[in-house]
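FW: tagging you since you asked about this chain on Friday. Here's the raw sequence from the shared folder, copied in full. Didn't touch anything.
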Amino acid sequence: MSGYSLNLMLANKSADGKHIGVALGRICIKTGVSVSSIAERFDVSRQTVYNWFEGRVIPNSRMVEPIKEYITILKHQ
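HL: got it, structure written out here
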């Protein structure tokens, strides 16, 4: 079991997976990567990461490519 709350996992599961932040959330939940480490990696707040994972906020355009690259890295671990 990951360190994620059931509420966050359910919100992520029901969110639109075509959004890059939701896709990031799904792979982080699956692989157990923490919200704190994502916030640090992308220099954003933990609340921003939660919002991405739930599809409430879409990462800005400068974040899209780095997030895609990180998702690729996580998929190959």
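FW: Residues 1 and 14 are 19 Å apart (CA to CA).
HL: agreed, and The mean pLDDT is 95.
FW: great, closing this out.
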